[in-house]
Amino acid sequence: MKEVARKARARGRKIGFVPTMGALHEGHMSLVRRVKELCEVTVVSIFVNPLQFGPGEDLERYPRTLSADVDACIAEGVDYVFAPSAEEMEPAGAETRVELPALGSRLEGRSRPGHFTGVATVVLKLLNIVQPHMAAFGQKDAQQCAVVRRLAADLMLDVELLVLPIVRDEHGLALSSRNRWLTEQDRERARLIPRALEAGREVARDGGRQPQAVIDAARAVLEEEPGLEIDYVELVDAESFESVEQLAGEMLLLVAVRLGDIRLIDNTVIRL
Ligand code: PAF
């Protein structure tokens, strides 16, 4: 992959990169299409990164659908699929970690300790291997986007980051590789998530309210469904991920819930 990247760069070709863990869906494909419009060489990585899964999380059962993913990439005109093994990405003796002590420990980082260290470490490795001019990420993992932005700025990486909107199904449910595990009943329950975000947005739009009113409105919708266990509902500053004290500027309303043993996240940007 490094050789391919070196040659493409030597020929003055712009490399666009979509890092993924596979089980590709329309959300990933929207990133691929945008990157293809902007770059001459498109690379998709498929790597289920053990470093970003905590003990007891779903690393073992995370969907692995490599040959269907490769077919989907070919159909979309992707030039290279980079699908390394865990041993290649983390050879024996490897120990360097990239840590974001503040941003990486809030929200998702609080619920999934070590998750963003795993993400930041593997993303840096992937960027070093693929050497892209541009890398695309989905807004669904909003905190991951903020982590990668921070990483790129702090370590002075020479890569342009692209964040593209959440792709939703016809009921508003954000596409996710984990959705495939939802039963029909779970899917119906999960539709409350986009409704909760919309309820929060409405309160924010009304104006003159406190951040807690936005959170309460979103929570109230989620609480309609006892089968849906709330991990968090938070309204944060879109860059620092710290709770906001007043409704102003660019904020993110974020939700994480559990449906049985499936954990889903979603978010919406609120600009005032
Ligand atoms: O969003 C993902 O699929 C992963 O977190 C990423 C960015 C590929 C790192 O493993």
Explain this structure.
38% of the residues lie in helices and 20% in strands. It contains ten helices and eight strands. It has helices at residues 2-10, 26-38, 66-75, 86-89, 108-111, 115-130, 142-154, 184-190, 192-206, 211-222, and strands spanning 15-20, 41-46, 80-82, 134-138, 160-164, 229-237, 250-259, 262-271. The protein has a five-stranded parallel β-sheet, with helices on both faces. β7 and β8 (262-271) form a beta hairpin. α6 crosses α7 (142-154) and α9 (192-206) packs antiparallel against α10 (211-222). The longest helix has 16 residues, at 115-130. The protein is globular. The mean pLDDT is 97. Pantoate (PAF) binds next to β1 and α6.
Give a brief rundown of this model.
The chain is of the alpha/beta class and 272 residues long. 38% of the residues lie in helices and 20% in strands.
The outline comes out as: globular
Q: In whole angstroms, how far apart are the ends?
A: 44 Å
- The low-confidence runs, each spanning 5 or more residues with pLDDT under 50, are none
Q: How would a textbook summarize the main sheet?
A: 5 strands, parallel
Main sheet strand line-up? 3-2-1-4-5
Total number of β-strand segments? Answer: 8
Mean pLDDT value: 97
> In what range is the share of β-strand residues?
15-25%
- DSSP helical segment count: 10
Order of helical and strand elements: HEHEHEHHHEHEHHHEEE
Q: What Rg do the Cα atoms give?
A: 19 Å
Ligands bound, unique? pantoate
Fraction of helical residues: 25-40%
Class of secondary structure makeup: alpha/beta
